[in-house]
Amino acid sequence: MGRTKQKQQTRDRHQEILDAAARVITERGLAETRISDIAERCGVSPGLILYYFESKDRLLVEALTFANDQFYLRLSRELRRMRSARQQLTRLIELSVPGLLPEFERLDEWALWIEIWVLALRDPSMAKEREVLDRRWRQSIAEVIHRGRSTGEFPEGTDADELGMQIGALIDGLAVQVLMNDTTLSPARMRQVCMDVAARLIGFAPEPVPA
Amino acid sequence: MGRTKQKQQTRDRHQEILDAAARVITERGLAETRISDIAERCGVSPGLILYYFESKDRLLVEALTFANDQFYLRLSRELRRMRSARQQLTRLIELSVPGLLPEFERLDEWALWIEIWVLALRDPSMAKEREVLDRRWRQSIAEVIHRGRSTGEFPEGTDADELGMQIGALIDGLAVQVLMNDTTLSPARMRQVCMDVAARLIGFAPEPVPA
DNA sequence: GGCCCGAATCTGAACGGCCAGTCAACTCGA
DNA sequence: TCGAGTTGACTGGCCGTTCAGATTCGGGCC
């Protein structure tokens, strides 16, 4: 019990720091994130951060993948609840639209994704991590499609992994635009566009457009 | 003549610096770009950089939009040469796939795009600039579609601007993946996927898949 | 032409702030 | 008593920016 609790606490401190780091990065951006900001957010001294992580760079990489893991866990938890593949797809899209769901004072995971991309361009460990995260993301989409086909909701057609890649890429591209507050693309519209294109690519009847 | 030449030279130095900055950013990344790197690349002293630009930050923003302008100029120059809309679309896609065309020792403009996104999240002037650049990009696609419809190559259907947004987002998303050297998506395959999805969304007969 | 002057261009040393990472010392629970 | 956890002052280097002066250039004047 004692040992468990101690380990537990250690891990908590780890996660606490990772979580704080992710929040700070989201708010201030990777480039403007100082160790002391993270420490302050934890209510802890700067030295302690370096006691738990060997360097700032390493911490940042871990924080980014940590945050993405959180998103993924939430996504799969929610999808598991849904009955129909169509509902799943809808929810998956909704969770992907920046700023659509204000619940949980949700950070914009997408801002972190872009930071991941920049890092991954030069940092090999981040590049590797990124590919894992990305594959998981596309696979989630493909699984929904598989499921829809097995229940007969979606017709057979293009390979599901291929569709996962296509729809995933579409969501990525649109999400960036929405995240940037592009005046021509609101969150609600992005949701609509995604559903629409997904319907056409997968081959099911689209939702009626709201008047 | 004298005055013209003088102005010309000044602008040359300006552009020279912008160009050098863009190259350095592409190679080392925005975060690792020092003023002295840019100066060295120009064969000039660091002080001079600040003589032409009021601050490092401003220079970086200008360099990024400068590079994007270059890409756009090249794109529209090339498209103007093409006869059919289909050729235009193909070329547009080819120019968008990172690393597909090695000609011109082409930098990967996409790396710069991602840096633009990160900056735009926090820097209002960059955000504004980004929206302009992005609109221009999507509009280029929409124009090709319009053209194809006016010549009868493409059928009528979904609004061309809407399609520009959809196809543009798809290209963005895929380009990021390719840029990251994702093992599951080669440049050639991205080209194929883009053509394929574009064909389905616009509604023309796809290219035959090469054996 | 040859000379001069002022402005534009350019240099590189020096300044100053910032911040990652170190470390010696302290706390406290087991 | 021991050692994991924690502190916060300190340091060492880095880099944007400034600045005082050197150099170059172009055009007016004899």
Uncertain stretches of 5 or more adjacent residues of chain A: 1-10
Radius of gyration of chain A: 19 Å
Main beta sheet strand tally, sense and closure of chain A: none
Tally the beta strands of chain A: 0
What is the oligomer described by this structure?
Answer: homodimer
- Per the CATH scheme, the topology name of the largest domain in chain A is Tetracycline Repressor, domain 2
Q: What is the beta-strand fraction of chain A?
A: under 5%
What is the level 1 CATH name of the largest domain in chain A?
Answer: Mainly Alpha
CATH architecture verdict of the largest domain in chain A: Orthogonal Bundle
Taking all residues together, what is the mean pLDDT of chain A?
91
Tally of individual helices of chain A:
9
Order of helices and strands of chain A: HHHHHHHHH
CATH H-level superfamily of the largest domain in chain A: Tetracycline Repressor, domain 2
Distance between the termini of chain A: 60 Å
Global shape of chain A? elongated
Tell me what the structure shows:
- Two copies of one chain form a homodimer.
- Chain A has 211 residues and is mainly alpha-helical.
- Chain A folds into two domains: 1-53, Arc Repressor Mutant, subunit A (Orthogonal Bundle), CATH 1.10.10; 55-203, Orthogonal Bundle (Tetracycline Repressor, domain 2).
- Chain A contains nine helices and no strands.
- Chain A has helices spanning 2-28, 35-42, 46-52, 56-81, 85-96, 109-122, 124-150, 160-179, 187-203.
- Chain A is elongated.
- The interface between A and B is large, with 41 and 41 residues.
- Chain A binds a DNA duplex (30 and 30 nucleotides) through residues 2, 6, 10, 13, 34-36, 44-48, 50-51, 55-56.
